Amino acid sequence: MSGTCRILFVEDDAIIASGLVYALEKENFLVTHAKNISSAQKAVREQKYDLAILDIGLPDGTGFDLVDSLQGIGASMLFLTAVDDEGNIVKAFEGGADDYVTKPFRLGELMARIKAVLRRRTGQGNTLALGSVTINVTEGKAFVNGKTADLTALEYRLLLTFANHKGQVLSRGQLLNLLWDSEGIFVEDNTLTVYIKRLREKFGDAVNIETVRGVGYRANDN
What we know:
single chain; four-stranded antiparallel beta sheet; 14 strands
């Protein structure tokens, strides 16, 4: 998916921009960075994008100034901004935003949200498969052989994280980052161990959650 996806990143903070551009390109996304509204508008006139990541406060306007142009080319939109008041959040979603992330952000969570937006865009967002388990993302439920799995909220989030990174080795630190609640509720390291064990017990051979010694875990299709 990532190799064919073009992302327009509109951000005037050079430090944030360089770090995120590097992370996105490492995931094989095709990234165009614009520092202001005028250069972003020029980029939109010259190229179609799958996703735009927008700051609100920019030197010559706000990210909202780009909404009409982006909708015109059918781009999805994710606002990434320090502005966290309810009015702007509501305005963003009413204007067609697919997600809204506030700074400071956790890179792992942001990358997961970017990929989720792109999956929804390509029609891949309703269901995910991992081993013999099917996850209905819209309903927030997991099924094994047609039967609903009885999962707690954290167990479901852990399963979803593995499904979104199938076949990849995830360190304990990466998993903790991805599981950290959007409101900042911390998931402790020993809690992660317990929930890995619970998933293995509940799913048995339906999902293969492999321990990669000294590194972390990897979930495979068996």
